[in-house]
tRNA(Met) cytidine acetate ligase (Candidatus Syntrophocurvum alkaliphilum), 416 residues
Amino acid sequence: MKILGIIAEYNPFHNGHLHMLEEAKKYDKFDAVICVMSGNFLQRGEPAFCNKWTRAEMALHNGVDLVIELPFSFATRSAYFFAKGGVQLLNRTGVTTHIAFGSESGNLSMLKKLAELISEEPQEYKFYLQEYLSQGLSFPSARAKALENFLGIEDSELITLLNKPNNILGIEYLRAILEENSLINPITINRVGSGYHSNQLSNYASATAIRNSLTKNNDFKTISHSLPESCLSLLKRDYKLGLAPVLPESFEQSLLVKLRSLSVRELNSIYEVTEGLEYRIQQAAYISKTLQELRTNIKTKRYNLTKINRMLLYTFFNLTKLQIEEFDKSGPLYLHILGFSSKGRKILQEIKNNSEVSILNRASDVKNIYEKENTTIKGKMIALDILATDIYSIFYPNSTQRKGRGDFTTSPIIVT
C-alpha cells in the first residue's frame, strides 16, 4: 500500500494547493492521501481565516482522503518544530509511505544537501551562525549567511533558495525525516503562481492575497478564479453563518487585557520569551492601543514580526517553556481525525491496525482523554487544542455561534 502524506494549513485551500496535490499524485499510484493540517491557529502565530472543520472539508472535496489535526503545540511553532510535528504524526499513522511538499526550487537533491548540513551542524557552520546571531540578525537570516560562508557560495542558487518560504519549510521536512530516521520518501513539487506574501490575484493567487482581497472588498467575485468552486461555496457558507472571517485584529483588546494583567515573572515563564523580552513586552502592552502598535513596539532587528506574533500567541495561551519541553520530548501523542472520505474510512482502519498512538475519530474520544488523562502529557496537549477552539469561537462574527467546547460536540466531516 502506498499512502501520500501532506502537511498543510489550507488557509484557505486554493488552486495552488490543488495543483501541488494533482502533480504529487502523478509521482506514483497512491492508494490514498493523508493531510496533517493545522487547527484553528497557524504557524505565523495568527488565527485561521475559517475554522479547522471547514478547511478539512475543503481538502476532502479536492483529493485528500483523511485529515488529521496537527496539535496546537506544533502547529503554531517555528518552521523546524512545525515540520517535525507533522512528520512525526505521519510516521505515527503507521501507513504513510511518501510525503509531498511544494517548493520554489523543485530541486530535491539541493534541499536534501542543506537539510543534512543543518542537521549535522559542523563546528565551522555553528561558529558562523553564532557570529551572525550575536550581530542581532534574526535566526533565518543568520542561518542563511552562515550557510553561505560555510559553503563558500555567493550570488548563487543557494542564496535564492534560502530566501524562499516554501524552500525553507521543505528543508525542515527533510531534516525532520533525517532526524526521525523515517522511512517516508520525500517528493517536492514546483510551486506555481504568486509568492507566499504576494497580494496579486490570479488563477494561482496566494492564500494571503485571497484573504486580503476578501477582507478588503467583501466580494467573492474577486477571488472566484483563485480557488476551486467547492472551496468558494464553503467560504460563502461560513460567511453567511457568521463563522468567518476570523482575523488577527479580532484578538486585539483581549490580548492587551491579557498582557497588561501579567507580571514580568509570569511573562518570563512563557515559551520564546527570552533575553529580557518580558520587560519590552510589558512596556509595549502599557503604551500600545492597537495590535499593530503592540507588534511594532516589541519588534527588534533580531525578532521579526512572525516571531513576535507567535510569542504573543503563546502568552495569550499561557504556553510555558516547561510545557513545550514536555511536548517536544513526546511528540504528538494522538491522531485527532477532522474528516475523511470513503477511501479515508478504509485507511483509518489500516491506521488503527498499525498506529501506536491514540486515534480520536469521535468527539467523545476527545472528551474522554481531556477528562480522564488531564494530568498526563497527552491530556495537557489536547487541552491546548480544546482551548484553542474555545477561544477561536469567541471571535466568530455571529455571536450565536460562539459556544465553547466545539471539540466535544463536532464529529469528523465525512465527504463521500
In short: The chain has a mean pLDDT of 94. Residues 248-325 form one domain. The beta strands are 3-8, 32-38, 66-70, 98-103, 185-190, 334-341, 358-360, 413-415. The first helix runs from residue 15 to 25.
